Every structure is written in structure tokens, then in C-alpha cells.
Amino acid sequence: MKKSFLLTSLAGVLFAGLASVSAQTPAAPSAPGAAAAPAAAPAPVPTKEVAVIKTSKGEMTVEFWSDVAPKTVENFKKLAREGFYNGTAFHRIIKGFMIQGGDPNTKDASKEGSYGMGGPGYQIKAEFNARKHETGVLSMARSMDPDSAGSQFFICLDAAPSLDNKYTTFGKLTAGEDVLKKIGDTPVVSNGRETSKPAERVGVESVSIVTVPVK
Fold first, then answer.
1. DSSP 181-198
2. Class of domain 69-108+122-213
3. Which residues pair with 61 in a beta bridge?
4. For range 92-120, the mean pLDDT
5. Where along the chain do its domains lie?
6. DSSP secondary-structure letter at 163?
7. Percent of the chain scored above 70 by pLDDT?
8. How many CB atoms neighbour CB 104 within 10 A?
9. 173 has which bridge partners?
10. Alpha helix stretches (DSSP H) within the chain
11. Using H for helix, E for strand and C for coil, what is the string for 104-136?
């Protein structure tokens, strides 16, 4: 009986020992989870170039119509980037019609007799299109020859349907309508040909090409 008890006791100890070893065996490591996908990069914000015309009466911003007058737009941007328009003036103002600028001769008061005759030294081809001459529309000035535009431009103070498809429209004001009106209301006197000479100088301090988000 004693011998049997001993065996039984040893068996119990052995079982307990195995249970203890089993309990102390570390669990197999779990498989690592999948790495988190990197956050998607934000979509690029579409942008466009506009012109900021800084004048002695305030600033005007103009958007371009490259879809209908690409060469005209590129010429205007090129001249602006070169500083061509800086220091010029709006030399011709006809109330209810338009304001005209872009003549390099207006940088020099001694050349007043030739205001309206200056240019960049070359001419560009016309790009007449279906965009109408309406308030705030930017268009190229020219002589009788359709392909005689260079640097001079005008901004409409009102609708001018008689100019449609005869002058190259290439942009429109998006800001500064109040400034356009101020310039359009500038008192004028006769220049010997018409009553359109500003009684006070309306200077163009700079024309800058700026990149902005598309709205």
C-alpha cells in the first residue's frame, strides 16, 4: 500500500510539473498586422495667371482669355514681365466708352504730342473672336490695319458692340471695377482731335503677372 501511494504521488508530481512547464511556455507571437497605407497626397490646386494693374487711382485685376486669343495674351504677359508698362499712363479716356493705355511714349511728358502712337517696335496679328466688348473687357488698340496692334490696350467702360469682331478681346476685369469707374470719370480736355485727354495724369505704376487659384 505504501509503494502504491508513492507511485501515485510521483505520478501526481510529474503531472503537476508538466502542467507547470506548459503554463510557462511562451505563446507563439501573433502575425504582425499589415502596415497602414500612407495618406493620399492632396490633389493639386488648379491655378491661373492674372494681371494686376496698379494705377494712381488703385488696382485692377484682369483674367486672360487664352482660349480665344492665345498670341495676344502671351504678348501682353511678355511685355508686363519685362516691365514695359511700368510708368506709362492712361492717355485716352472717353466717358461711357473706354480707357486706353499701354503707350511707352506716355513715360515721357515731352512726348505728349505723340501719345497714342507708341509701341514695342513690332506688331502682332489680330485674333478677332466671339467674346463681346462689355464693361471691364480688355481689348487691343490698333490703327486701321487689323494686324497693327502692339502694346496699347483699352478697357471698356460699357458695352461697345460696334467693336465686336473688329478688335481683339483677350481678357476681363475680375476685381477693381470701382477703380475702372474712377479712371473713367477723370475729367478730360481736348487734345486737338477729340475730347479725351485726361486733365490729370492717370499713371500705371506697374503691371504684374500673378498666379492665383482657380475659383
1. HHHHTS-EEE-SSSEEEE
2. mainly beta
3. 52, 175
4. 97
5. 69-108+122-213
6. G
7. 83
8. 19
9. 62
10. 2-24, 70-81, 177-184
11. HHHHCHHHHHHCCCCCCCCCECCCCCCCCCCCC
188 vs 60, 93, 101, 142, 185, CA distance in Å? Answer: 21, 7, 15, 22, 9
C-alpha distances in Å from residue 71, one per residue of 76, 103, 191 = 9, 19, 33
Q: What is the pTM of this model?
A: 0.81
Which residue, chain included where needed, has cell 497626397? 41
Q: What is the pLDDT of residues 4-52, one digit of tens each?
A: 433 344 344 333 343 443 444 444 455 555 566 677 788 888 999 999 9
Spacing of C-alpha 159 from chain mean position:
25
Specify burial of residue 168 (Cβ count, 10 A radius: 0-12, 13-18, 19+): buried
Q: Could you tell me the maximum CA-CA distance found in the chain, to the nearest angstrom?
A: 144
As given in the structure block, the three cell numbers for residue 211 are 498666379
